[in-house]
Specification:
Length: 186
């Protein structure tokens, strides 16, 4: 079953707060209910993969100013039928930033978010069941803006809120601080 791996990863994921725990449960239900959950042609919603890319120091995150949504976000995108959501997140991060040395920290899910995408060009408003993974990259690697973005930037974690203060983004910032504290203790 092509949904088995992502369902296993989701079952192991502990939400950061009640909201993320609920979104994780809802994502599991959605994937179980829709065999074609990885296809963007499923117009009620679909699974997407995103990358939270930290520099090697863990002090900066790579963000893109999304052209269509006119907001700063982490790179990511549609699975287009690919059930390997980690591979999708990596592919999208490389395509959207041009950074060639992006590496997954591990296979564990870093964050789960469900958000609405507004109607655009005849495609009705729908939900993205966004599954996010943690990556690292060299902050000095060249970046390349493509047609999906207006800008790319390594943003200091303490400054992310100035660009995007949505709960979804700030939750990942908070998680990053928690990881850093844990690493400093070990």
């Amino acid at each position: 079953m092509h949904r088995k791996k992502i369902l296993e990863l989701l079952s192991k994921h502990s939400g950061y707060n009640r909201n993320e725990e609920q979104m994780t449960r809802n994502t599991i239900e959605f994937i179980r209910a829709h065999e074609n959950c990885f296809d963007r042609e499923l117009l009620i919603g679909h699974v997407t993969g995103s990358a939270w890319v930290l520099d090697n120091s863990g002090k900066f995150v790579l963000l893109m100013h999304h052209r269509k949504l006119n907001r700063w976000f982490q790179p990511g995108g549609h699975c287009d039928g690919d059930s390997d959501v980690l591979a999708v997140a990596l592919k999208e991060a490389i395509e959207e930033t041009g950074a060639k040395d992006i590496k997954a920290v591990n296979e564990a899910i870093f964050d789960v978010d469900i958000h609405q995408i507004p109607e655009r060009k005849g495609i009705p408003a729908h939900l993205h069941y966004d599954i996010r993974f943690l990556f690292t990259a060299d902050k000095d690697s060249p970046l390349l803006i493509n047609e999906e973005s207006n800008d790319l930037a390594w943003v200091e974690l303490s400054k992310v809120k100035e660009l995007n203060s949505e709960d979804s983004i700030m939750r990942m910032v908070d998680k990053t601080y928690q990881i850093k504290k844990w690493l400093e203790k070990s």
